[in-house]
Amino acid sequence: MTEQKSDYEFLLAAPKAELHVHLEGTIEPELLFLLAERNGIEIPYRTPEDVLNFQVEKKTSSTENLKNFLECLDISRGVLVKAIDYYDLTMHFLKQCQKEHIVYAEVMFDPQQAMRQGVEFEAAVEAIGQAQKDGLKEFEVETQWIMCFQRDHSPLEAEKILKQAEPFRDLIIGIGLDNAEVSGFPNLFSEVFRQAKLAGYHLTSHCDVNQPDAFDHIRGCIEQLSVHRIDHGLNVAQDEALVDTVLNKNICLTACPTYYATENSCPPDRMKMIKTLFRAGVMVSLNSDDPAQFGSGWLSNTLAVAQRSGGFTRQEMLRFMKNAFQSAWLPENRKKVYLDSLSEFERRVV
Ligand SMILES: [Zn+2]
To answer: Is residue 232 part of a domain?
Structure first.
């Protein structure tokens, strides 16, 4: 006999992978206030609700929303000024993963953010690495890390950091691009991605949804940067040739169905694109992106919002979860362990 669970309980209980989450986007209000106080940094919030409300005040369009979102994110990540802050934040994240039944995560972090705030690259990465080990023991969550360069900062700076990362290959599995979407950015980062590819890193890049030049950016990431994955990239759904390309190259799109800060819902245009891609057989996974910055919160609730908005069955939700494990940058035998545990869950619960 199968167990009876509500859709949310079902999504929470399933063993999950998270492929698109930014460490700096996981600073929940309680930790934000604690770090701000500890580091003597003033933040313009009085209550936890202010963190999300701040983004909504000036929002006028989906393009503006990215700008306002980043402005808000800057305030939150501005409290990270010491290596110990990175350790504490990573441990906080891993503890939450355990509650969420996220058993495996590929976590993005922005070294340029740390360095700008006075945390040396090595110190930040060592703190994350220590928390990775401690968190694996304490919370039984496996992680690998994606070092993201910021698209609105110098590609030469990125090349320098890539060299600094050499001793940390055990921790850093992939290279990504994030932050503000600069026009023509793939071309700017082709050299550093060429070097990263030669060094054997997995490659990904953000292509945010409905940004100017979205199609050119997606094509550029595939052709010039040779990415194995695209973060967001939903506009692929609107171009048949691009759908064929991502299918032929088996490129995973790490979709984030929710976006708006205080709304616990999925914008219809986003869901339409996710559905088109999913039905076409594209490897789409569903992810939380910046759980402390969105009204949808952590992954289980994000999945519940997606299921409700998209009218997906439990089997379809399991398909999204399988896509995440299948696209993970793990050896095949390790993927199989996770996929087997998801199949076992399916037999028991669905
Ligand atoms: Zn992202």
So the answer is: yes
Domain holding 157, by residue range, is: 7-349
The structural domain count of the chain equals 1
**Distance of alpha carbon 252 from alpha carbon 286, whole angstroms:** 11
Q: Is the pTM of this model over 0.85?
A: yes
pLDDT computed for residue 49 by the predictor: 85
Instruction: State the average pLDDT for the chain.
Output: 94
CATH code for the domain in which residue 26 is found: 3.20.20.140
| 43, two tokens | 């933040």
Whether 150 is in a domain gets the answer yes
Cα(131) to centroid(ligand 1), Å = 22
Compute, in angstroms, the gap from residue 254 CA to the centroid of ligand 1.
9
Sign of CA dihedral 114, 285, 287, 233: positive
Sequence-distant (6+) residues with CB within 8 A of 113 are 24, 77, 80, 150
> SS3 of 19, please?
strand
The more confident residue out of 281 and 65 is 281
Range scoring the smallest mean pLDDT among 140-149, 234-243, 253-262? 253-262
49 DSSP 8-state letter:
H
CA of 191 to the centre of ligand 1 (A): 22
Per-residue pLDDT, averaged over 182-194, amounts to 97
Match 């933040």 to its residue by tokens: 43
Residue 55 CA to residue 51 CA, distance in Å, equals 8
| 1 has pLDDT over 60 | no
* Confidence at residue 254, expressed as pLDDT on a 0 to 100 scale: 98
Residue with tokens 């914008």: 267
Separation of CA 140 and ligand 1 centre (Å): 24
Residue at 2 is within a domain: no
